[in-house]
Write the structure tokens for this entry.
Amino acid sequence: MGIIKVKCINCNKEIIVNKYKTADGWICGKCFSLSGYNIINALKKTKEQVRSDIELHSRLNNKNNFIISKKIGNYIEFDDINRQFRVFDGLNEIGIFIDSLLGEKKNSTIYSYDDIIEFELIEDGSTVTKGGLGRAVVFGALTGPAGAIVGEITGKKTTKSIINSLKIKITVNNFYKPAVYINLIDVKTKTNSIMYRSIYEITQQILSTFTLIIKQNELKKSNEISKEFKNNQYSAAEEIRKFKELLDEGIITQEEFDEKKKQLLNI
């Protein structure tokens, strides 16, 4: 019985070896590498998602254009010059988690500052800190070394001596991959331990940095709106001037001029 030949759903080339299963077909080794997937999340991807993700991954992950201006642990790096950040998801090629504290960097993905919608700190499944575009940052409180996270969002303060998970979720403007996770703790950890204290400092740095980026994004958006408004005002003034000339020449009536002026000034 001969080998069943299949074609890659992205490049349409025949796959002989190194094929990876997706939701509705197979992708070749080259396209698998370009996608940034591991064998587990590849299984959930459709043909359209694969093509979109490869295009996005290739565009964003030109590492030659990434200039590290700030690095926080082995979790995340920031490029303020090109306004982008890089997250290491801790998964190796077969989908097994590698703790970033060991210094292992796996599956880095680059995202634009402009694509950040919101971020939140999640402890044992509960959100304790949240911030994003158009809202004030709502903080729970990270207590000192003797405590864990105090949840003020629910209006009830609780102090834990042990936590099982701590991660930061970043929501980005990407239809197929809208959530980016920075896994900080994924094992049972005492909140008075050296490990927790170390993660506590890293968490504060990451959250503070994203707060600043959100503020920068809001200022940038405000400046763009202001510039557009000024341009529109200038265009309206020019148009009014032209219609005034038509009025002076008797080509249009005073009533027509007044009506047009109201339209241009949104009165």
Observations:
- The helical segments are 29-35, 39-42, 47-60, 194-248, 254-264.
- Residues 91-104, 136-158 have pLDDT under 50 and may be disordered.
